User: Which sequence fits this backbone?
């Protein structure tokens, strides 16, 4: 059995900053590869996601878009965003579709921001999973995520997002969205293989005239375990993909420093009081009445 | 013969102070639990992580209301005068119990007055940044992370001053704590700590 569920990082633990070494090295590191140019917009992946993960169905309304839901939610972990963009100055409207779901960052900002031990776990295989049993509902992961992915559920008071069908992956299967995609726009495999595949796809796209075709695997978060091949790599913002996402915003790093300083400061306070007491002692009023 | 005592804090003052004191300690415990993974077990006292997360801001509101009352009750006595400034200059004599070189204090000494002002300002910071963190959906990541930073920084200030406050109010100066419990102090205590203050005498 391959070492599919060895743990790499646990939120609010030392391993959040210093990843655990894999005890059984050489386990597979996976990635999805989403080829936007092959997506036909059928949304089968959305249905497969709901179905496999047993997520509540939400009433949708027509808001003038081909898109199913307006936004992700704690029950909608995957949303195909049909961004409507006019390319050039003609009237040729294009869908710059984005498969909006957790990217499973190599350096997950959500996990770094989380104060609840064990609420977010990253596996050696690349999957970042939320463990609602340990979630305290503070939503710091929401502000830690550079991709605006986690969603808070007011009823359960916990946060949820795509878990890469970890229960399928553990059993050697591909995630449900990959399985269902009729055009193989979503591929699944060892991350290195997926990067090589991305290169081939990019070459082919360039031959077809998409000179800016690129792979989206942002280095600011250490790379991701859901990568995209985008035909218009020079127009990331039109896909709603941040050009320079970072996992540890300056403020979070500041917080870590402050916490260290703080523990010394409070310790210093207690010790000073103790030393003062031993050196000078209490001062008693003279009760002469 | 019974010793006459001096009234220092009314019943209302004591209630308000202890609402502030107890809520603050509960907030400090849960807040530290959220800041330090190794202290997460402190959430146990309020029923575990999720319960502590729900209660922390609610207790915060109680603290806010309490400290607002406290401010209204005591602000009149808290402005520093000329002798208070002299007192601050002689603070090292105060710390070493060298009373002959400590300018006489009124109802509150300059240290107490500064503590009052520091806690009042920090309370505003707590409220504003805590409010942001309570409703994270309404604000962007930058706001929230900044709020988290400031909320935490004010905790450090408040926590450090609280350690000094509790130390001085209890073990360092015997006879002080009763002012906040029974509301009265002995004449000898008043003469030692607050020579310029003459409270109302009450019979035991
Ligand atoms: C929980 C532990 C606390 C203890 C044991 C404690 C104890 C005391 C005592 C004995 C006094 C009376 C001092 C006197 O008679 O001169 C006092 C006064 C006072 N307390 Fe506290 N207190 C606590 C927490 C707090 C907190 C959390 C605050 C505000 C954030 C606070 C604010 C004040 C203020 C402003 C005064 C009047 C001025 C002063 O004495 O500094 N206390 N406290
Ligand atoms: S995309 Fe967001 S939720 Fe997913 S691993 Fe990265 S930081 Fe976490």
Assistant:
């Amino acid at each position: 059995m391959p070492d599919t569920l060895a743990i790499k990082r646990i939120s609010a633990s030392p391993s959040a900053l210093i990843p655990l070494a894999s005890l059984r090295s050489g386990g597979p590191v996976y990635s999805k590869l989403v080829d936007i140019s092959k997506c036909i917009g059928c949304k089968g992946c959305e249905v497969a996601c709901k179905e496999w993960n047993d997520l509540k169905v939400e009433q949708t309304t027509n808001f003038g878009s081909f898109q199913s839901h307006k936004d992700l939610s704690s029950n909608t972990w995957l949303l195909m965003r049909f961004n409507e963009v006019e390319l050039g100055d003609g009237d040729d409207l294009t869908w710059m579709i984005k498969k909006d779901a957790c990217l499973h960052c190599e350096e997950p900002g959500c996990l770094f921001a989380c104060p609840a031990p064990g609420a977010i776990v990253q596996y050696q295989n690349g999957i970042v999973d939320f463990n609602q049993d340990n979630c305290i509902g503070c939503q710091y992961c929401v502000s830690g995520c550079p991709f605006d992915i986690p969603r808070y559920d007011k009823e359960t008071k916990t946060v949820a997002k795509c878990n890469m069908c970890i229960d399928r992956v553990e059993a050697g299967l591909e995630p449900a969205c990959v399985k269902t995609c009729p055009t193989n726009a979503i591929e699944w495999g060892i991350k290195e293989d997926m990067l090589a595949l991305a290169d081939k796809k990019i070459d082919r796209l360039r031959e077809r005239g998409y000179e800016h075709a690129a792979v989206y695997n942002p280095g600011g978060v250490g790379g991701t375990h859901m990568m995209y091949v985008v035909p218009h790599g020079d127009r990331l913002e039109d896909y709603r993909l941040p050009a320079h996402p970072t996992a540890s915003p300056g403020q979070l790093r500041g917080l870590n420093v402050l916490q260290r300083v703080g523990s010394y400061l409070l310790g210093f306070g207690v010790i000073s009081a103790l030393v003062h007491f031993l050196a000078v002692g209490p001062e008693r009023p003279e009760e002469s009445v | 013969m019974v010793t006459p005592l001096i009234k220092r804090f009314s019943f209302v003052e004591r209630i308000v102070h202890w609402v502030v004191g107890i809520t603050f300690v509960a907030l400090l415990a849960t807040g530290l639990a959220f800041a330090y993974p190794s202290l997460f077990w402190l959430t146990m006292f309020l029923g575990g992580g999720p319960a502590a997360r729900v209660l922390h801001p609610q207790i915060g509101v109680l603290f806010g209301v309490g400290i607002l009352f406290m401010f209204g009750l005591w602000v009149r006595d808290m402005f520093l005068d000329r002798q208070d400034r002299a007192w601050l200059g002689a603070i090292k004599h105060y710390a070493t119990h060298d009373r002959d070189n400590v300018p006489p204090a009124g109802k509150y000494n300059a240290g107490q007055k500064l503590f009052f002002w520091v806690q009042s300002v920090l309370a505003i910071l707590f409220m504003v940044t805590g409010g942001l963190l309570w409703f994270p959906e309404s604000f962007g990541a930058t706001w929230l992370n900044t709020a988290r930073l400031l909320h935490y920084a004010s905790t450090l200030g408040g926590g450090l001053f609280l350690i000094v406050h509790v130390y001085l109010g209890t073990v360092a100066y015997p006879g002080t704590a009763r002012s906040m419990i029974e509301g009265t102090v002995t004449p000898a205590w008043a003469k030692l700590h607050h020579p310029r203050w003459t409270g109302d005498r009450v019979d035991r």
Remarks:
- The longest helix of chain A spans residues 250-280.
- The pocket of iron/sulfur cluster (ligand 2) is lined by residues A 102-105, 108-110, 128, 145, 147, 149-150, 161 (CB under 6 Å).
